[in-house]
Design brief:
mainly alpha, 6 helices
Amino acid sequence: MGEFKFLRRLLFFHGRINYARVSETIIYFFYKNFVFTINHFYFVFLSLASGQTLIDDWFISLYNLIFTAFPLGVRACADQDLRDEDGEVVKTLTPFIYLENRENPIFNIPQFGLGLLRGIVHGLLNFLIVYFSLLETIVDIEGNTADLWFMSVDIYTAIILVIYRNNIDRFN
């Protein structure tokens, strides 16, 4: 019987926290990947479907590997809205804190759709702002205008900044 004394805490306390983390992570991953890939879609129209890629392969690999996965790892290790130090309050509220996610779920179709819509809009704004700001801009002392590489790095940097900004706003 000693094996089952932690089952209540496992189901209600850790189950609730795990549900919230997984739900927010799924929505975030779809959002960040949509912001990233929708820029490639918009670039197809600019390049007249020539097959040219917008962002270098190394940057594409590093995007999910380092730049946008790191904040989620930090959050997963550090985030807990209820702690063991809360003691009796957690024991008393345990059945009721699970109702919060059951009655008002984090992961549902409207939230998922909102994440995709925000990804499309943020990607479009990112692409258009960078493209039109570099259209006839002189970028060096010799009078050269921005080329594809310069635009690629600017778009990639802007994507990273938009994702980090959205991550800070969403998880605070």
